[in-house]
């Protein structure tokens, strides 16, 4: 059983701030999987992560291009933002993106990656997001591998 930590984020600004804190703690080789239904705030969280990493460029959902690469910014770590929604579990298409190679030198955030992208590394963080009826986002962090020992350094909301 994996220990999870859960946070409540009342506004999109809170989601951005949480993402900024998470992004500031990322390093090359980190894999973050974002899980949750449409409208849960995955792309907003990724914008915050990008801001925390200091990467440049507009962060938007890469649904139609599958992956966007954002050059390294102030922390020196590039961000690869993947949207695996359209892959529908097609692992061959995921392999075609060569994320395992990019993971060595980048932080990789995969929306809709649960069930397929875990195989890129034994060390990954699942961020589960849901939107309650009152529009508050419930975010649970589920560490795997070395992420378990890094939980204390992760943001608290």
Specify the number of helices: 5
For the secondary structure, the number of strands is 7
Strand content: 25-35%
- Strands in their spatial order, largest beta sheet: 1-7-6-2-5-4-3
Q: Low-confidence spans: pLDDT under 50, at least 5 residues? A: none
Q: Return the average pLDDT rounded to an integer.
A: 82
- Which structural class fits the helix and strand makeup? alpha/beta
Shape: globular
- Main sheet characteristics: 7 strands, mixed
**Which percent bin holds the helix content?**
25-40%
Topology as a string of helices (H) and strands (E): EHEHEEHHEEEH
Strand and helix layout:
Elements: E1 5-9, H1 12-24, E2 31-35, H2 42-53, E3 67-70, E4 79-83, H3 91-96, H4 99-103, E5 107-111, E6 124-131, E7 137-144, H5 147-150
Parallel strand pairs: 2-5, 2-6, 4-5
Antiparallel strand pairs: 1-7, 3-4, 6-7
Helix pairs in contact: 1-2
What does this protein look like?
There is one protein chain. The mean pLDDT is 82. Helices cover 25% and strands 25% of the residues. The chain has a seven-stranded mixed β-sheet with strand order 1-7-6-2-5-4-3. The two termini are 23 Å apart. The protein has helices spanning 12-24, 42-53, 91-96, 99-103, 147-150, and strands spanning 5-9, 31-35, 67-70, 79-83, 107-111, 124-131, 137-144. It contains five helices and seven strands. The protein is α/β, with parallel strands linked by helices. Strand 3 (67-70) and strand 4 (79-83) form a beta hairpin.
